[in-house]
């Protein structure tokens, strides 16, 4: 079994600062502890962006510090709250692919995982640049006979809620490239702070709620109110020759715990 843990939307802030009343560093430490305790068999962990709420170097240094406790290998891409240059200064230029973005390909146990950096400086919506789509096309072609999972920060498929205002703006172009490969097992995103699954244009898409908070968003592009009410959540991706399965592990502030057997 190929097993991956995906954390997203950590939104680390400066020391002593809370975000929506939450200590996001403590929440990340809980996520790292949950992986070490329950998913230590994972081949690796992926961070799917929005690592630092304001993209500052102090937050990236704290991220590095928290991740030092992680017991599995780590791979990272960034989101709209991140600052690409500052991230690369703190973590190292080797985190950028030859696209200039924080893209990465990981091959493990006969399957391929591709991380894409969908952040666009100065805006909350996402985009994949032509150089990245070309790079993706090449990475897919060279792995035409193995299952592929793609992980990026922004959702590409319309979710029919307000978050579509900050969607990946060239989703159809992205899907056209994905469809050149016939074993795209999952496309996994964070960004929207809630859980969804979809089949869009023949490709399976998933979002996870991430580590900051989980929102309840009523359906409809203008519907209110948005409630910030749920747990911290990671995705655990289990993949073998037959299927790719996404579990959701609510590792902090999960709902009511019922008494077993009662
Ligand atoms: Fe985001």
Word description of this protein:
The chain contains 5 helices and 13 strands. By secondary structure, the protein is an alpha/beta fold. A 6-stranded mixed beta sheet has the order 4-5-6-7-9-8, with helices on one face. A 5-stranded mixed beta sheet has the order 3-2-1-12-13. The protein starts with a strand and ends in a 10-residue tail after the last strand. The structure holds fe (ii) ion. The site of fe (ii) ion has 6 residues, from loops. Fe (ii) ion binds next to loops. Pfam families: Metallophos (PF00149). Keywords: Hydrolase, Iron, Metal-binding. Residues 5-193 form the Calcineurin-like phosphoesterase domain.
């Amino acid at each position: 079994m190929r097993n991956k843990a995906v954390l997203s939307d950590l939104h680390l802030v400066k020391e002593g600062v809370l975000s929506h009343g939450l200590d996001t560093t403590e929440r990340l430490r809980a996520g790292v502890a949950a992986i070490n305790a329950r998913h230590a068999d994972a081949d690796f962990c992926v961070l799917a962006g929005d690592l630092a709420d304001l993209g500052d170097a102090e937050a990236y240094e704290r991220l590095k510090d928290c991740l030092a406790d992680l017991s599995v290998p780590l791979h990272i891409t960034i989101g709209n709250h991140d600052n690409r240059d500052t991230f690369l200064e703190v973590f190292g230029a080797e985190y950028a692919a030859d696209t200039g973005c924080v893209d990465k390909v990981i091959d493990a146990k006969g399957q391929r995982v591709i991380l894409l950096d969908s952040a666009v400086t100065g805006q909350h919506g996402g985009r994949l640049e032509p150089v990245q789509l070309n790079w993706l096309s090449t990475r897919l072609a060279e792995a035409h006979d193995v299952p592929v999972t793609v992980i990026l920060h922004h959702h590409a498929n319309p979710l029919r809620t307000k978050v579509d205002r900050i969607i990946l703006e060239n989703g159809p172009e992205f899907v056209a490239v994905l469809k050149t490969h016939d074993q795209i097992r999952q496309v996994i995103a964070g960004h929207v702070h809630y859980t969804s699954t979809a089949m869009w244009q023949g490709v399976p898409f998933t979002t996870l709620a991430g580590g900051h908070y989980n929102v309840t968003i009523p359906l409809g592009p203008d519907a209110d109110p948005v409630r910030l009410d749920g747990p911290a959540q990671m995705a655990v991706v289990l993949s073998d020759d037959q299927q790719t399965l996404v579990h959701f592990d609510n590792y902090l502030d999960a709902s009511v715990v019922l008494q077993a057997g009662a």
